[in-house]
Structures are given as C-alpha cells and as structure tokens.
Specification:
alpha+beta, 4-stranded antiparallel sheet, 12 strands, 17% strand, 12 helices, 43% helix, 5-stranded antiparallel sheet
Length: 326
C-alpha cells in the first residue's frame, strides 16, 4: 500500500485537473496561472509548480480525509509560527477542498531559490560546511520549549504540546514491531534483537530525564535549501515533534556517514563525550531511528544506492558504539 502510494498516478489518487483548479481558486490564483507537476515528489503529497509573475508551489495531500487534512493544517500553522520567530521557513497558506472523508488538504508555499543540500553529497568540504550550518540551525530551533512528548497535538494548538506524557513512551511506539520486522528481513540477528530490547529497557530512566524541545523530525539533506553558503529555507515540517534535542541531532547523523558526525556535533555545540550519558542517548536514538528507517525503506520500496553499504548497517554501527560505551 505505502510503496504503491509513492508511485501511484495522481489521478488514481483523486488528484485531477478539476481538483487542482478548485484548490487554485481557493487560494485566489488567477485562472490564467500555469500549473506543472514538479519533477521531485514525496510520498504523502503531490507537488506542483504554479507559474505566472511569481513562483510558488501547490502541495496537495496524496490521500483524502479529515486526518490528512488536519496534519496539513497543523504543519502550515507551525511553519507560520516559526517564520514569525525569524526562522528560515517558507511562507505557507492552507486550504481544503470538500468535507468529511472526501476532503483534501493543500498548501500554497512560496518558492525559495537555492540548492538542495543533496546536491553537495559528492563534494565533501562543501557538504561538511553546509551540515555545520544545519547543526547551528537545529541548535536554534531546539531552544523553543514544548510540553509533553511526541507528535504535536492538534487539539492543543497553539500550544506546542506532544501527545505522549513521557519521552520513553514515544520512543517505544512500534519498537518491538520494528525489531521483529528487521529480524525477519535479515537486517539484524536474533542475538542483536534481544540486545536491542535490553538496551532500551535499561535506558528508561535516562530517557525520562530529558527536557522537551521542538524538533524538526526529518532533518535530511532534501529538506534544507542552501544559498550562498547559508541555510536559506527549511521545508517539510510534517514530522515535527516534541522531544529530546539530541534525537534530532542523531536523526541528522543517520543521513550521513560517520566521518561527518564530529563536525555536526561540534557545530551544534553538544558536549558528547564517549561513554557519557549523552553519548548513550545519542546512539540509542540513532539506533531507534535506524530501525524505523530500515522498516520504512522496505515498506516504501526504497533501494540501497549502488556501490554503498546497505542502509540497514546503521543499526550495527549504533550497536557497536553503544558496546564501546559499556
């Protein structure tokens, strides 16, 4: 189902020319505006370029229904709030078409000029410099406090409040399921599965001591637009959550080889000494995210890049670093 969602034809998802035109009218776009499907697409949204005198993007939920529309409304509210705080977040507006389970959420987002950080992957000095900028951005973002933990509760907005009472409660959501799935697919051994369960069981008190902050939730290179060596825009806030700031830092590092981690942590300003509690948390979060990513890559049908080690080996990297801390 999820893999087919990513590759499904727009019209098969119910996103046809009539819907696009109704959404454009809802945003008061002129009837003369030209709409072109963007070359880069996500899984849960379809992206279109709206062209006339000013460039902007129309982002449409891939699935209909109240829940998907609510998530888009919340994301737009959050983006607007962060923009008002002076953070580099594109201007966003939200509209919906229809009612009930047939409704469809959409964003109109100002298009920003620049280069995606993914374009730097084969230029190591440039990538490291850009990642240091990303780390400094995250450090600034994480100064925004929240309450509770996990995904932001729409019903409590504008309060930045997570839906879970405890941080470890969020971390354990589908943890056992993900471990079983990784073992079933051969990404981890039975011994590694037992060790992972034990590591998270023993770390409960460590997790519960953490202060809740606003996190981006998906700080991959594809979500950062760079211009003249600076972070010009940060996009895709749908996975934002409330939690331990080190979780976001670990998430950023899962997108990159370990040779880049020290520069990221240094620019962030995190004092993470090998063997310390912060070191254990960082690598436990790295492990938790690696487990989830391994499952999701299978579900969405993502293939490993040719010539590179399997992405699932991030699990073994985290286990190795946690073993060093014992």
């Amino acid at each position: 189902m999820l893999a087919s969602l990513r590759t499904a034809d727009d019209e098969a998802l119910g996103i046809d020319a009539r819907l696009i035109r109704r959404l454009l009218a809802g945003f008061d776009e002129p009837a003369s505006a030209t709409v072109v499907r963007a070359p880069s697409q996500g899984t849960f949204h379809r992206l279109y370029e709206v062209r006339d005198h000013a460039a902007r993007l129309l982002r449409v939920a891939a699935t209909a229904g109240e829940y998907a529309a609510m998530l888009m409304a919340l994301e737009c509210e959050l983006m607007t709030s962060l923009r008002e705080r002076g953070l580099p977040v594109p201007q966003c507006e939200y509209r919906r078409d229809g009612e009930g389970e047939a409704c469809r959420g959409a964003h109109r987002i100002a298009r920003v000029e620049g280069t995606s950080l993914t374009d730097f992957d084969d230029d190591e000095p440039r990538m490291v410099q850009a990642l240091q900028e990303v780390a400094r951005f995250l450090a600034k973002l994480h100064r925004i406090p929240g309450a509770g933990f996990g995904p932001i509760a729409y019903g409590r907005w504008p309060a930045l409040a997570g839906v879970h009472a405890a941080w470890d409660e969020y971390l354990r959501v589908r943890l056992a399921e993900h471990v079983r799935a990784c073992e079933a697919r051969g990404a981890i051994s039975a011994d590694e599965a037992r060790r992972i369960a034990r590591l998270f069981e023993e770390a409960g008190a460590l997790f519960r001591e953490q202060r809740p902050s606003l996190l981006h939730g998906d700080p991959g290179s594809h979500n950062f637009i760079v211009r003249e060596g600076r972070i010009h825009a940060v996009v895709d806030w749908e996975d934002a959550l409330i939690g331990d700031a080190l979780f976001d830092l670990a998430s950023l590092c899962t997108f990159h080889p370990e040779r880049r981690h020290a520069a990221i942590r240094s620019a962030y300003g995190a004092g993470i000494e090998p063997g310390s509690d912060a070191w254990r948390r960082f690598w436990l979060y790295f492990l938790r995210i690696a487990l989830a990513k391994t499952v999701h890559r299978h579900r969405f049908g993502y293939a490993d890049r040719p010539g590179r080690a399997p992405a699932s080996q991030r699990i073994q990297l985290a286990l190795a670093r946690l073993a060093e801390a014992q």
